[in-house]
Predict the structure.
Amino acid sequence: MKTNPLLQTIKYTVLALFTFVFGYPIFLMIVSSFKENAEIFTNPLSLPTSFNLDNYIEVWEVVNFSNYIVNSIIVSASAVFIVLFVSSLAGYYLSRYKFKWNPYLLAFFMIGLMLPMKLAVIPLYMTMLKLGLVDTLFALIFIYVAGGIPFAVFLFYGFFRTVPRALEDSARLDGCNDFQVYYRIVLPIMKPAISIVGIVNLINVWNDFFYPLIFIRTDSLSTIPLGMLTLFGEYDTQWNLLFAGLTLSSLPMIIAFLFASRQFMDSLTEGAVK
Amino acid sequence: MAKNKRKNRYKKHLVHLFILPAALIYGVFQLYPLISAALNSFYSFNGFERVDFIGFQNFITLFTEKPYKDFFLNAFSHNWIYFFVTVITQLIISLILALIIHSKIKGKEFFKSMFFLPKLLSVIVIGFLFSLILNPTRGALNTLLEAIGLEAFTRPWLGDMSTALLSVIFVDSWASIGFSMLIFLAGLQAIDKEIFEAARIDGANSFTVLFKITLPMIGPALMIMTVLTFIGSFETFEYVFAMQGSSGGPYYSTDVLTTFFYRLAFGTVDGGQAIGLGSAVAVVLFIIIGMATSLILFVFKRKDFER
């Protein structure tokens, strides 16, 4: 197939233009985080004149950044782990056992896929209030787990239906009980589904801002996105700190992406297509 | 023997433990709040407490009484603008990028990763970052425009009522293009290559191939993405909140249904909570979004129910 040189030039020009459009704001954020405040004001587009980590050290000190990171890690890790665990069990149950109520259970989970949970935030708030969970990390973990379950159950359910049962049956003949079959045979062969559900949920939970905004009042319990609100509220004229804070909060995901860009992109695509 | 049988039945029941945790957590923290939110729209409230069952009164107030009626229509029209503009700024651009990356070019992985990068950042980070970039006096965009001799185009992007909503939509698209591009790419890659070969042998040129084969073949992906964009446009909250605050400033020119809901629910309208009215807004959104989602689920995922 021959290529038209003019067409190729147009293609590369468009790609270069969009590389600039997508890359420059992020580049600007990182570069500005090394500048002094006055420098950002007078020369917003230039490169920093000196390289030091002063802004980062100051951000770390003026807001509870280390707390924010720890809270984000606790919430994301627990939520993703629990979603994977309970949803894979549920998906297995729905696809392997033919109980008469299974179609209703599927419909039950489907409601959650159809409706935006954000709008149920007031009853959710009252439920948390009754359980004494407002202003605790448990509130966030439960919400993210509940929010992740419908998608995860459907993905696991679809996945199990494509996996032959022969392996499980032979394990059962060898004397494994249901839980052993699940743990020893089923879990290992569903790594692709686990990575899709894990990554989709990790990105959602790590970056979410809405639920901490509603449920967390104590600054030391903030996650990183909510911490940004505090930073922007209190230091809105010190752009050097703002850029450093933004860079710092984006760094974990960007680093993870550098190591596993393929998995990230494939998981999100497959998660949406399935 | 009988004892063994009972033990077996006992074990059989244990299997229900598989479904229990998921059903319980989801039921308590998602399904129950959703149903309860819908029911709340039929009650009057005193703070967080339900007072009286008042039928459709909240909806009537929302649709017919000032100032709620005007707020509702204003926000509702912004959601529609959000949708139509996003179709152009996000869907069409990402489709073009996907077509280019799918064609014969070098550095596919690099471009894919670059375009996808914003998706990894928190919406609040993106919103704040762009509120700095779009700042009228110190922001990078206006500085850049001045530097290349386009002073005439500088403006307070987020502070001007005529550009505020469009700016928010552009930022949203900036963050979302990479993801929709990947979905289109997946659609393109699924097309059988032999079809293209056959078309070429028949003497079809690139444009004929594009309009007669490629686009019709990714029709389902295009349809899914359009519906997802529609849902996203009615669910949108964080970008508006991060860049324009919960009142969708300036002068409500970026107000959408979710920010209106937020103000009703958390008490920044009339100085008090209006949970009944807020829930009525939520129900309107449930209906709009629920219909759009069922379209996807029942057109594309029906096979899940057909055993």
